[in-house]
Structure formats: C-alpha cells, structure tokens
Fold:
Amino acid sequence: MNIYFQKNHQRAFGTYPLTGEALLSAIECAAKVGYRAFDTAQMYENEAATGEALAATRLPRDTLCITSKVSVNCFTEETFLPSVEQSLKDLRTDYLDVLLLHWPPADGDIAPSLRLLQQAYDKGYARNIGVSNYTVAMLRDAIQIVDAPLVTNQVEFHPLLNQDKLIAGANETGVPLSAYCSVARGEVFKRPIFAEIGATYGKTAGQVVLRWILQKGVSVNVMSTNPVNIEANYDIMDFTLSHVEMARIDAITAANYRIVNKDLVPFAPDFD
Structure:
C-alpha cells in the first residue's frame, strides 16, 4: 500500500504556518491524539521546531512518517542536496519518510529538479519521493524521468474545487494525490450541507469534509492549534458517507474556489 494511504498515514498533521510554542503544543497534542504522519517544508521555516517537537514526543522513529519539501530556491546542483542535509539536521533524523519537490520550477523544466530528487533518494536521505502542485502533463513526464516511484502529488484539494482532472491523472500515472488546504482555510464552513450531513453521523462539518476527501482516494493534511479540532480531525475513520452524500458534495466542486493561485504564488503552473 502507498505510504500516504496506510492506516495511520492517510491523516497527516500539517505544520504550516506554525512556529515556536504554538507548533510545539500542537504537535504534542496531535501525537497524543494518534497522529503519526507530520508534514513540513523548507519554505515553512519551521523544520527545526518540528524536529524539536517530534523529539519531545519520544515516539519511536519507525512509527513516524515525516514529510518535508525542497524549496524551489534550492533546485540547483549546488544547493539541493545541502538543503536536504540541513532539513535532516533540523528535523533530527537520518532520513525522511517522504521528500517532495514543493513546486514545479518557474521555467517549467521539471527534469533537473527531479534528477536531484532522485539523487537524494539514492543517497538514502529519503525512503520515498514525490512532488507537489504538478499538473497531469508534468506527472506523465515525471514518472519517465525518475527511477524511484513517486508516492504522491500534494495539491490543493477540498470540496470547493473541482480536481477531477487531477484524480484522473493520478489514476493514469499511478501517483496518488494528497491534500493541502483540506477545509479551504475555513471557507467550507460557509456551506450548511456539511453540518447537515454531519448531524446524521454525530460528526462535525469539518469531519464530513475530511471524510469526503479520504473517500475520493486522497490522503489529508490538516492543521489546527485547537485541541478539540485536532482530535476531531483525526477521528474520521468510524463512519462512511453514502454514494448520495458523496454526489451532493461532488456537485459543490463546481464553485472552483482556488486558494493557491498565481496571485498568491506567481510561479505557480497553469493548473489543470
């Protein structure tokens, strides 16, 4: 089974934009709740704090799934591997479970950074590798460039954005999706349908959203500093949405509300 869809890893605790004491407290709480997958990135500037927090949990390293991402600023021969070495040092680990490229390069030439990612894998810096924010066309090319399998394409994924093309591309290439902005930074809560469906199961609106994502075959990354929400976001495995409920939520994706666009990230690709 793909590492991102193993039982304890399909629900990951995201760390953006947390730093300092807020991050330490959130990870402590998440670990107590049961999270074992944790997601960070060089661009978040919190790898050292994440490493400190994970060390403080005293959880055995082999029970954790730690994901980090290489910044586009480090996609050169001179900077890529040293940046990963610094990530390992900051995270207090000898290896990453998953190492991703955070974005495609601005010039659209994905081959050089993918080859550097392969080098990091070959050196044992990462047990698995993947990408973020890739289009389907990029994925088709990527699986021809690297020898190691790509375990995920981490993308914006929530019920307010239609990602059917990416789902089809994931099925075609065998590179599963994992979600960021899983609750659209709170925008989903403006839609009463989620609380309505949740009432049927004794679940919150947020739990319904996350369950919908999982049932789409996509693993979730979700962040909170509220202990109640941290626990609720994890507690989504004891109910299943019906086909009718899934279809009702699917219909909302027509809103095509995208958070991470070229206004926010100028070098973002032309998304599918």
